[in-house]
Automatic annotation (TrEMBL), chains A, B:
GO biological process, one term: alpha-amino acid metabolic process
Required cofactor names: pyridoxal 5'-phosphate
Keywords tagged on the record: Aminotransferase, Pyridoxal phosphate, Transferase
Pfam families (UniProt xref): Aminotran_1_2
One Gene Ontology molecular-function label: transaminase activity
Protein name: PLP-dependent aminotransferase family protein
Top-level lineage group: Bacteria
Organism (species): Mesorhizobium denitrificans
Amino acid sequence: MLNNERGAAVRPSFSRWLSQTNDITQQFMAMGVDPSFISMAGGLPAAEFYPVAAAAEAADRALSRWGAAALEYGPVDGFMPLRAHIADRMSRMAGRHFDTSNVLLTVGAMQGLDLIGKVLIDEGDRIVTQYPTYVGALDAWRPRQPVYTPLDWGKPGTSVETLRSAKFVYGVPNYSNPTGALVPTPARAALLEKALEADTWLVEDDPYLPLQYDGDAGPSMLALDGAMMPGGPYNGPVIYLGTLSKSIVPGLRVGWVIASPDMIAALTLAKQSTDISSSMLTHAVALELLEADIEKVHVPGMVGHYRERRDALCAAALETLAPWFEWQVPSGGMFVWMKARNSTIDTGVLYARALREKVAYVPGSVFDPAGVDTSSMRINFTRNAPDVLREGARRLAVAAKDAFG
Amino acid sequence: MLNNERGAAVRPSFSRWLSQTNDITQQFMAMGVDPSFISMAGGLPAAEFYPVAAAAEAADRALSRWGAAALEYGPVDGFMPLRAHIADRMSRMAGRHFDTSNVLLTVGAMQGLDLIGKVLIDEGDRIVTQYPTYVGALDAWRPRQPVYTPLDWGKPGTSVETLRSAKFVYGVPNYSNPTGALVPTPARAALLEKALEADTWLVEDDPYLPLQYDGDAGPSMLALDGAMMPGGPYNGPVIYLGTLSKSIVPGLRVGWVIASPDMIAALTLAKQSTDISSSMLTHAVALELLEADIEKVHVPGMVGHYRERRDALCAAALETLAPWFEWQVPSGGMFVWMKARNSTIDTGVLYARALREKVAYVPGSVFDPAGVDTSSMRINFTRNAPDVLREGARRLAVAAKDAFG
């Protein structure tokens, strides 16, 4: 990997985990330079709906209102008025009181995942996680070198014993990444109950909550736990991750963790050693947008467009991809998870052909902690307009026909 | 540490490194709530000089110019126009060409330190670092559990053999944190030569470059290396860290790493797994400020104030603290490093008394990788006005007299 042009001996080797990772997220973030290329890979919102004018007004108000404080190093745990606002928001959502000692502001929900790995994982520690799981979570924890055990949300599901063997349990109950699946309330309640019995941490990653297309998501595990323990400071096992990346814009990089004060204190120590503090400007702008109730104005229209896009993709896929793949229509979120109808269809092989047809998705292998899934793929439907999605499905079918007949 | 109010068994333990860290940076970031308290602890710029109006105009221009692109997930390595601007800036500074493959934008220089630890350190790996060293660097690397060997900049200085035993060498040659020391050019050149011979990485952390009070800082090791290898893509051993936190404002959290493309690629992979991308809004605002040449307008006046503050602190300390401490007047940066005149003076003991007098500094122990320094302290002079610094020195003397007679 190293190439010293002076021709001397090679420099010190990189850390072990780097040889086990991939740059697929980076590739997706850099896609879109060629306008004729259709990327259905990244978990990206549609930029044409971003409230640019509202953000410009919010930046102006934020700097008038807070002045130098918006350009300052902040407290490690975030801009206090925004922490208080998020505490209130989550209290309303979960139906129990959280105060600021339950809140850490993070750089998107992604930094929350990184910090959770930092404070809980030493090499060889166990994480119980849904299979397949969000590639960003696997990326975040790889430098800590954990081992994985699959989470079964079903009945009887993962045993208390198994949960007890883990530093934490990880799941995305609302419109999961990558599968789009919505976990039913009884399964959430059962997992919470077992996590309480096992006395382990329960990480609930909830970025897709605002993107509901067919009815309600149901209560979060944080809310279910809160209902069992409505009084006093929240001290339960749930570590809840939220973000403004899906409901407003990703480029402010504003997310948050809700957890017991001892966990928030540990995560804050880890954040201190990661970036000292987030940008107070982004926190102050986010606060202005939230106080102006931007989500009420912004989300319903955007969700309408996303629903139309989901339907366009699924209808086009029925006409083009059904010979090779099957899928469930997701009731929220950003993704359709397609599984090959038979094992001769390798989505890694298909990927190379798809790139030649100028279309991209994410091969299922990167979501598999065991790395053995060769038969699935994740397709994003929020980023592109219906016509583009239809053309993307057509190109994928050309690639599939070429690869598998 | 854990306290589960349900009274069941304790939850899984935190990662080992957390029991070895401290929250001192966090404390300093949170200080300043009580206006009668004088903190000379944090390495903070003076907020009264922040160019708030220019930042507000820059935010407005950035959103008009880039629209949704300024509110988007960015490429992991940063907003391309700002990367290109930083490549040009560093090319001018170092007198050799860097292109964007040599540049990663980070959340302040601090994230650069975190990422360097992530990509180079496995548990037990060695870092050769200046003693005392920046507490933020020690914080950043603690989760990776390295071991440390002191760097000697002098003659003959650290041996090539010792450098060869390390994953990297770390130093702050310009107005070091915590000592304020300026490393002479021959010593920089000698270290660079040995690092080349040892074929190890050389981390040059350079946040204080803009804060020069008495003459020029001298060439960076990056420039010295560039001069030896002026053509072709930069592929040398220096990993250079820069930031806008000291020259413009810290709250944009814009820093950068300059290094060989293979190192930039590895650091970018690590950033992908840390926060996906930085806030494009902060990058776009920083670009506007830099294109408007804000530093030319802003830095000279600020540096004049800082020089006055340094002089005020040093003069006051001569009158109040000289019975217990001695120090060198720094020619740049943010800190005066005071060493006790005898070993009965413990700056940890003094710290508790100082807090009672409503004044704070940073005890030297947190900068000592070996954790044994009990006789030094770091005093910041940039944050407070001359009168406040004089009062701070007076309070420190009251505390010292009370503690040590």
